[in-house]
Amino acid sequence: MPRLKTTTLYGWLLFAPAGVMLTLFAFSPTIATFWQSLFSRGTARRPSQFIGLDNYEAMLADPIFWQVAKNSLWYAVGTIPTSIAIALGMALWVNSKLPARTLVRMAYFTPTILPMIAAANIWLFFYTPNIGLLDQMGRALGLGGHNWLGDPSTALGAIIVTTVWKEAGFFMIFYLAALQTIPPDLKDAAAIEGAGRWTWFRRVVFPLLMPTTLFVLVNAMINSVKLIDHLFILTKGGPSNASKLLLYYVYETAFSYFDQPYAATLTVVILLTLGLLAVVQVRGLDRRIHYR
Fold first, then answer.
1. Taking the first listed entry, what is the main subcellular location of this protein, grouped into a coarse class (predicted)?
2. Are 95 and 266 in contact (CB under 8 A)?
3. Whole-model pTM over 0.85
């Protein structure tokens, strides 16, 4: 019995640092945010009052929220699969016997180490009307100029391109590390069996990369929600909310309109959505994952 108590105490001591950090920086802020979402917006003359779920009802009736949610959905659809596919392709490329392989790896990874603000300013030189690189290339081909960030039909697409350029190199590192753990004997055995490159990739490589794919997928999903720096530099959510995403809408509501309860409401919805998607992803893909 004393030994069991000692083991239990040892386990709680190991858990204590992580438990304290999670409580201070995850659980407590989440509970406080949900509690704040149940109050009205306070002013100097009219203090904040408990209103229950009225903020959630107002959110469901808010046309801007639905526009932002639609933008966020298209942004996730445009960035997540594209970033993962490009990252996997780059990892396969730089993992092969390639001349100047180290230089190519560094070139692919360079956008990742750039600050978000710096990356956005670089792409601002591409998108600026008339003097931007895209318009200059268009004029060389006999095409007219275009306001890429000022046109509602292209603003969100421009943000998606910037994000894919920034994130693909980051995800490539995880795939490259996973590829280097695959034993060479497997490739020799597949060659003996007469498997071609596509069969080798589809039957052996990709199944072994599924744990990495799940990890990258969850991170890509989180990154698709937390974008704010690029929007602040490139479009500020415009024009006409065409490129505004959820986290930027939270920032704008809290610090531009000073409606912190409504911003807390939006934050709670974001957290619930991310949690549900993460559960679905983990449970849906766990059966197809081969752990070694």
1. membrane
2. no
3. yes
